[in-house]
Design a protein that fits this description.
The structure is a single chain. Helix 1 packs antiparallel against helix 2 and helix 6 crosses helix 8. The radius of gyration is 22 Å and the shape is elongated. With 180 residues, it is mainly alpha-helical. The protein contains 8 helices and no strands. Helices cover 77% and strands 0% of the residues. The longest helix is centred in the first third of the chain and has 29 residues.
Length: 180
């Protein structure tokens, strides 16, 4: 991998330093208003700067540095929100909320609750990108085309990730039934 010339590195350093000096305080304030803590805002600001350090960012920001900086920050916040939301889905599925079986049969209710617990653990153990696709499709009721557009991936990638997620969850369920 080629990092670049010293001139490029110096120019990028100067570019980042100029942005931090000129817009750092307002960026931090923007992030503090939207995140839970000062530490989260500091981390997010560093991540914004890392994204700005990527090749081509300086050229893309020319003439509109502040707007570019805040667009990156806004996109970062959206990405973080999506990840939190995707992780939160499995935590939000509680056995007491399951109405799969409207029965007074205690044994059936126990089976349903155990199955939901197994599925929740299965969701938590999925690869992040597979879980994200699964959650958007099954809980967000999005089609493969919509998921592909939202995640900026191909429909074929969505299909593959969904297939892996379903296979994983099936294996988790099969293993849990063997152990009963």
């Amino acid at each position: 991998m080629r990092i670049g010339s010293n001139d490029t590195l110096v120019a990028n350093s100067e570019f980042l330093e100029r942005l931090v000096t000129k817009h750092g305080n307002s960026l931090l304030e923007f992030l503090r208003r939207r995140l839970r803590s000062d530490e989260d805002a500091q981390d997010a600001a560093q991540e914004v700067m890392l994204r700005l350090a990527q090749p081509g960012a300086r050229k893309a920001a020319e003439g509109r540095e502040r707007a570019y900086l805040f667009t990156i920050a806004r996109n970062l916040l959206i990405d973080r929100h999506r990840r939190r939301k995707a992780r939160g889905i499995e935590a939000s599925v509680r056995p007491s909320e399951v109405t799969l079986l409207a029965t007074d049969d205690t044994e059936q209710q126990v089976i349903v609750h155990e199955t939901v617990d197994v599925l929740r653990r299965g969701l938590a153990s999925l690869a992040t990108e597979d879980r994200e696709v699964f959650v958007l499709h099954r809980f967000g009721h999005l089609g493969y085309r919509q998921i592909a557009a939202r995640l900026d991936i191909s429909e074929r990638t969505v299909e593959r990730r969904m297939s892996r997620a379903l296979s994983h969850l099936k294996r988790v369920l099969d293993r849990s039934q063997v152990s009963q």
